[in-house]
Amino acid sequence: MELTRSPWGRAALAAVAAAALLSLPWLTGCDPQRVAQLEEGVSTEVQVRQQFGDPVTITTLPDGSRVFDYPRQPEGWTNYVITIGPDGKMSSLRQLLSPDSFARVQPGLDQQEVRNLLGRPAQTKRYELKNEEIWDWRFKQDGQQSMLFSVTFGADGQVLRTAIGDDPREIAGGGK
User: Fold this and answer.
1) Entry pTM
2) Same domain, 90 and 60
3) Coil vs helix vs strand at 170
4) Are 57 and 111 in the same domain?
5) Neighbour-count burial of 96, counting CB atoms closer than 10 A to its CB (0-12 exposed, 13-18 middle, 19+ buried)
6) Which of 2, 50, 120, 139 is the most exposed place for a label (fewest CB within 10 A)?
7) 144 lies in a domain?
8) How far apart are CA 43 and CA 16, in angstroms?
9) In a domain, 133, yes or no
10) Are both 91 and 141 inside the same structural domain?
11) Contact call for residues 69 and 59 (beta carbons, < 8 A)
12) 61-103: per-residue pLDDT in tens?
C-alpha cells in the first residue's frame, strides 16, 4: 500500500488506528467517571451500555433481573457487576474487588461461589503435582499499591486458602 510508505501516510494510519481504539468503551475515560453517570433505580439498560459497553456475560436471575459482568482483569484492578432489574432499570452497580469481598472468600467455597464474589480472575495457574489451582486478581490497595489476591483451590474445587501479596508485575516494572 503506497499510503504507508510516506511519513504522512503512516501518521494518518496511526491516527485512524488510535481513533478506532479510543472508540472502544473500555478504553476511553475511566470507570469512576462512567459510574458517576449512572444512578441506581434511575439509569436504564441503554444508559448502562452507553457508559460500559456490552457486558462480557449476562446472567438472568429467577426474578427476571439480569446481571451484567464487566471484568477489568487481567490489565485493570477492578471487576464490576451491574444488575438490571425486571423493570429495565439499574438496581445495583458493584465493584467486586474490595476488602469486604476478599474477607468473604473462606475455605470450603467452590470455584463458582468465588467467581460470583470476585468476578473473572486475572490469571489461573494449575499445579498438577500438588493437585491445586490458584486464581489471582489484581487490585489497588488504598487506591495506590498494586496487589494480588490469590485463592488456592484443592482437587475438589473448593477453597483451601487465600493470600494477599505485592503484584509481581509492578515490582518488575511491567504494570500500569
Assistant:
1) 0.75
2) yes
3) helix
4) no
5) buried
6) 2
7) yes
8) 33
9) yes
10) no
11) yes
12) 999 999 999 999 988 899 999 999 999 999 999 999 999 999 9
